[in-house]
Amino acid sequence: MSSATDVGHHAAPCAGAAPCQDRPITPPDLSPDDLARIDSIQFPTRTIHRGETLYRTGDDFRSIYIVRVGCFKTVITHHDDHEQVTGFHLPGETLGLDGICTDRHACEAIALEDSSVCIVAFDLLETLCREVRTMQHHVHRLLSGEIVRESALMVMLGTMTAEQRVAAFLLDLSARLAARGYSSVEFQLRMTREEIGSFLGLKLETVSRMLSRFQKDGLIDTRGRQVRILDREKLSRV
Amino acid sequence: MSSATDVGHHAAPCAGAAPCQDRPITPPDLSPDDLARIDSIQFPTRTIHRGETLYRTGDDFRSIYIVRVGCFKTVITHHDDHEQVTGFHLPGETLGLDGICTDRHACEAIALEDSSVCIVAFDLLETLCREVRTMQHHVHRLLSGEIVRESALMVMLGTMTAEQRVAAFLLDLSARLAARGYSSVEFQLRMTREEIGSFLGLKLETVSRMLSRFQKDGLIDTRGRQVRILDREKLSRV
DNA sequence: CGGACCTTTGAGCTGACTCAACTCTGGTGG
DNA sequence: CCACCAGAGTTGAGTCAGCTCAAAGGTCCG
C-alpha cells in the first residue's frame, strides 16, 4: 500500500490497481485472443504541466484521453470571461467524451498538477469496438456511466445545501481515490477553494466556511489542501 | 406546417420532420445497403398512459426507447420519498441510456400525457453498431450529446438565477420542439410548475413568480400551461 | 525576503424559500 | 345544468442560507 505522503501526491497507485499505464481502456473479462489484439496496440502518451491545457473548447475532436498521472479540471467558458468547473478527473478516469457528438470539444481540460495522459484515437477505438464485442460494451458503459454521474450531480446541485454539497464532494473524491488504489482517508486536494466552489455552485468563502465547520465538528482534519476524513459516517449523514 | 392548436398538443409533426415512426434511430447519410438492413428491422412499440411508468429505478436494462408521441419526465428518487426530476423527453428523443452502465435503470420514466415509445433492444443495437459503422458513430454521438446536454444543465444549476433558469428552460423547450417540427413560438407545457421547479432546482412558487414576471414584462404570454413566446431576444438576455 | 495567490473569518445584504391564503380549472355527480 | 371538489396555480409577507464586501493571515516560489 502507498504511504500517506505518496497518496497525497497521487503519485503511487497500489500494486494491482486499476488499468492505467499500458492498457488504458482494457475491459475486464477479455478473451485471450482479444486481449492479445488490444495489447498489441501502442497508445501514445502526453505530458501536460500544471496549468496547461490538454484541449480547448472548439478544438477538433480526434481522441479521448485516460489520465495516467495527475489531475485535471474541465471547464466551460460562459459569456467570454465567466467560467465554470464541470468536473475533476483523477488517474484512470476518462477525458474528452464530450467531443464525440459535434466533432469538437465542448469544454476545456486543464491540468491541476503536472500530469500525463494516454491518448486513444477515437477512430481506432471505434474500429476496435466493431471487432471486439466486449470492448464495445465497455465503451458504452463508460459513456453511460458519465451520464449517470452527471445526473447525480444535477440532483446535488438542485437539492442539497452548501454543507451537504461539500460533504458529498469530499466523500466522492475519497471513493474515487479508493477505487484507484489510493487512500480514501487522507488525501491532498489539487484544486483551489474557488474551483471547488465553481464545481459545486458555491462561492469560495462558503466552501471555506463549510470545511472549517467540519473541522470544528471533528468530521475532518484539514490543513490547507491536506484533508483527513475522521468521521465518514457523520459526514455522509450531514 | 402544423396549426397552433395541433402544436399545442404535440400531435402533428411537420411533414419531413426528424425520424420517429418506423425508423427510430436511423442515422443520416446511410448507404442504400445499410439503410435496407436497418429498414428490415421491425421495432416494437409500446403505449404508456398519462401517469404510468415506462421503467422504474432498478429495473433490468434491456432496451432503450425513442419517444414517438407524447412526453415523459425522468425522476430520481432520493431517500425513499423526496424525488427530483432529471429531465423531460419530447418526441424523437431517447430514454433509458442511463441503464447501460449497470444493466439496471438508474431512474424512473413517467409519461406526462398519453404517449407511445419505440422499443430498441440494446443487444440488437450493439450488433447493428458492429456491422454498420455509421450506426455505431450515430449511437456514440447520441451518448455524447447526452453528456454535453447534462454538462450545460450543471452550469445552469450552478450559476444562474431563478429568473435565468426559467427563461433558459422555456428557450430550451422551444428549440427542441422546433427541432422536431413543432412551433417554437407557442406550445403547451405538459408538466406542472412543481415538476419544472424540481428540474430547475427551484420551488414551484418561484417558477410561478418568474412566469408572472415575464408575462408582466411582455416577454411571454401564458395562460395556465399554454405559453407563447413574445420576445425571444429579451428572454435570452435575462 | 518579497510578492502573488490562496485561505480564513467577520458583518451586513438579498434572492429564493417557507408558510399561508386565495383563485382558477377541469372533471364528476346530483 | 349547476354545484362541488381536488389539484394546480398565483400572490403576499416574513425568514434565512448563502452571497458580497472587506480585511487579516498563510503559503509557496522565485
From TrEMBL, chains A, B:
A Pfam family hit: cNMP_binding
Residue span(s) of domain HTH crp-type: 160-233
Segments forming domain Cyclic nucleotide-binding: 26-96
Single GO molecular function: DNA-binding transcription factor activity
Key words of the record: DNA-binding, Transcription, Transcription regulation
One GO CC term on file: cytosol
PROSITE patterns: CNMP_BINDING_3, HTH_CRP_2
InterPro entries named in the record: cNMP-bd_dom (IPR000595), cNMP-bd_dom_sf (IPR018490), Env_Response_Regulators (IPR050397), HTH_CRP (IPR012318), RmlC-like_jellyroll (IPR014710), WH-like_DNA-bd_sf (IPR036388), WH_DNA-bd_sf (IPR036390)
SUPFAM superfamilies noted in UniProt: cAMP-binding domain-like, Winged helix' DNA-binding domain
PANTHER family to which the protein is assigned, alphabetical: CRP FAMILY TRANSCRIPTIONAL REGULATORY PROTEIN, FUMARATE AND NITRATE REDUCTION REGULATORY PROTEIN
Name assigned to this protein: Crp/FNR family transcriptional regulator
UniProt source species: Caballeronia humi
